[in-house]
Amino acid sequence: MRNAPSQRGAACSAHGSSPYRDNVDARLDALRRWLAAQFKGSAFDLAPASADASFRRYFRARMADGRSYVAMDAPPDKEDCRPFVHVAKLLRDAGVHAPEVHAQDLAQGFLLLSDLGTRTYLEALDEHNAKPLMRDATDTLLRWQLATRAGELPPYDEALLRREMGLFPEWYLGRHLGVQLSQSQRGELEAIFAQLVASALAQPAVYVHRDYMPRNLMVCEPNPGVLDFQDAVIGPITYDVVSLLRDAFISWDEEQVLDWCIGYWEAARRAGLPVNADFSAFHRSFEWMGLQRHLKVLGIFARLTYRDGKARYLADTPRFVAYVQAVARRYPALAPLARLFDQIEARAA
Q1: Residue ending a domain, choose from 83, 114, 145
Q2: Is the same domain home to 201 and 300?
Q3: Which among 56, 117, 144, 295 could disulfide-bond with 220, CB atoms 3.0 to 4.6 Å apart, if both were Cys?
């Protein structure tokens, strides 16, 4: 039914290495002092909860009476907590189970959040529970999209789409593989980028989580809890559903992906969301949107390795290469991209 999740992907959601160097102890001490003030002197234990691909890290604060919270440490010179606070409210107002922000200190970069538990979809999903868990994830995504209001989030515009895809030739091809594209290859890749941008911008615009995938969904009640939403935008309606179904760390059979995609499309139509009435057209947009995301992620994973020293992400690049090749080979307009990957593979062999 699926390919097993990457152990590296699962691990980095729970115990990722700290991005900090010299100031790690100073920030941890400051966080402890801030939490002590929030808890009004009540005793608490603090332990690492998770770290992500950014400079944020998270700690679980457990009280003697059994209450549990999550504290976010986001250095203000590297991360801005304000989008997290804003999007958390949008999600909760939409009926989505996102963390409640109990306290905040934006100057120091500290947030105190409700605790959504320790079990991610990535860790929990198997052949027996996939159907109900993915149904819950789809229902939650619909609530999020139905809550869309203009002016609340930045647009997923052409500049951002292109900036993301630009990471692929710079970091994956150039830095990771050492591939220098010829002039004709650069022209063909730019033409592919232009088609993907046009397809994305032609879609109805809704709230986009931008990383709506099993690693960021928690098994809890109500299910699921939603995390890592601070980069949310207003953009293409297929973006979050393709992020869910063609994930960074877990792959499903194409038949299963198609079945879930149809289920989302039917539910979206019943809910009144502006999806294309022709499923084949919707599915093409879904696939091309996924291609934009997968090219971006190939670049991001290479950048995390060579710029940020987080090499564990590169282990999952074959999954994205497979996604890209499968989609590129299905559409004649994308044939130059399929050919480029064939050439890269031939060179590697």
Answers
A1: 114
A2: yes
A3: 117
The reply to whether 200 and 70 lie within a common domain is: no
Same domain, 105 and 175: no
Query: In the predicted model, what is the mean pLDDT of the chain?
Result: 91
In terms of residue numbers, what domain contains 94? Answer: 2-114
Q: How much is the average pLDDT of 202-229?
A: 97
3 state DSSP class of 204: coil
Cβ atoms < 10 Å from Cβ of 22: 6
* pLDDT interval class at 60 (50, 70, 90): very high
Q: What would the mean pLDDT of 293-313 be, rounded to a whole number?
A: 94
Q: List the one residue out of 296, 336, 297, 54 whose CA is nearest residue 163.
A: 296
Q: How confident is the model at residue 53 (pLDDT cuts 50, 70, 90)?
A: low
Phi and psi angles of residue 179, each rounded to the nearest 5 degrees, phi first: -95, 125
The pLDDT score that the predictor gives to residue 16 is: 34
Q: Cα(273)–Cα(231) distance, rounded to whole angstroms? A: 22
Tally of structural domains, the chain = 2
Phi, psi values for residue 113, rounded to 5°: -120, 155
Check whether residue 287 and residue 319 sit in a common domain: yes
Extended strands (E) in 93-212 = 101-105, 110-114, 205-208
109-135 per-residue burial string, b: 16 or more CB within 10 A, e: under 16: bbbbbbbbeeebbbbebeeeebeebbe
CATH code, domain carrying 65: 3.30.200.20
Q: How confident is the model at residue 55 (pLDDT cuts 50, 70, 90)?
A: confident
Give the whole-angstrom CA distance, residue 109 versus residue 273. Answer: 36
Provide the pLDDT for residue 21. Answer: 44
> Do 133 and 265 belong together in one domain?
yes
